[in-house]
Automatic annotation (TrEMBL):
Highest taxon of the lineage: Bacteria
PROSITE patterns hit by this protein: DEGV
Pfam families linked to this entry: DegV (PF02645)
Name of the protein in question: DegV family protein with EDD domain
Source organism per UniProt: Hydrogenispora ethanolica
Length: 283
């Protein structure tokens, strides 16, 4: 039976790819002072407008155990192997909840094949691994081979981004190794990445334009030495700069470079204005 791939909403996989490769998505949620929304049910324009109007940064929460259970039990009942790939456990309790669900399912269905993977990252760095796994599953690869495909892509992947400010990361407690920058932000535009599941400083430059140039340079050097697996450009309510980066990469790489907006859960922790890219290499 074809392996079922399940991920969470912070992968930000486009809907057409989910449908084409049968990827199932469980949703995290965001909460304003008096309202809560499932991320999957809230469009980005509405969310970022509401966040701009709010006096407080909203909070996020993981999927319920029940939603996770229902997502996994359906394919298991069909006799299908299931692989879940989730947001870094350093950023959310989603992965640990998925482990609890796995244990429950294996008690009920001892012969089931279930694997939960902590991506140790977020957004389309995770999404590209999920997509690669789903393509392998659709091509008929077996359970163990699909698991290895996920891990191989994650090992060769990178998420780099330039936030407009670090205030959102600081308030959300997700700043990780970038905390050393907080006292000297006035003259710095940091380029961040994700290391061991948390934000960390990759480079420090003086302007946003220089940050975009440096991110592109880093990616192109990685591709020159290791080859390109796949790439997307990310943005948080900043499509104009994302289009500019995608055009440069398209010309340099001679491939179509999709633009993938980041939604509410990651957006509230990183902040509007952010641009970046997720990619993986062939070696």
């Amino acid at each position: 039976m074809t392996v079922q791939i399940i991920t969470d909403s912070t992968s930000y996989l486009p809907q057409d790819l989910r449908e084409e490769y049968g990827i199932k998505v469980v949703s995290l949620s965001v909460t304003f002072e008096t309202e809560s929304f499932r991320e999957e049910a809230l469009d980005n324009d509405t969310f970022y407008r509401k966040m701009a109007e709010s006096s407080r940064i909203p909070t996020s929460s993981q999927p319920s155990l029940q939603e996770l259970y229902e997502a996994f039990v359906a394919p298991i009942r069909e006799g299908r192997p299931v692989i879940g790939v989730f947001l870094s456990a350093e950023l959310s309790g989603t992965y640990n909840s998925a482990l609890l669900v796995r244990d429950q399912l294996l008690e009920q269905y001892p012969e089931a094949q279930v694997e939960m993977i902590d991506s140790r990252t977020a957004a389309m760095e995770m999404g590209l691994a999920v997509l690669a796994a789903a393509k392998a599953a659709k091509a008929g690869e077996l359970f163990v081979a699909v698991i290895e495909r996920v891990k191989r892509v994650l090992e060769r992947s990178r998420l780099i981004f330039a936030p407009e400010v670090l205030e959102y990361l600081r308030k959300g407690g997700r700043i990780g190794g970038a905390s050393a920058l907080l006292g000297s932000l006035l003259q710095i535009k940091p380029i961040l990445t994700v290391i061991e599941g948390k934000a960390a400083v990759l480079e420090k430059v003086r302007t946003k334009g220089r940050a975009m140039e440096t991110m592109i340079k880093i990616l192109l050097e990685d591709v020159r030495t290791k080859g390109l697996g796949d790439v997307v450009v990310h943005h948080i309510n900043n499509e104009i700069e994302a289009l500019h980066i995608a055009d440069i990469l398209k010309e340099a790489l001679q491939v179509v470079v999709p633009i993938c907006p980041i939604g509410p859960v990651i957006g509230l922790h990183v902040g509007p204005g952010t641009v970046g890219m997720a990619y993986y290499t062939l070696k």
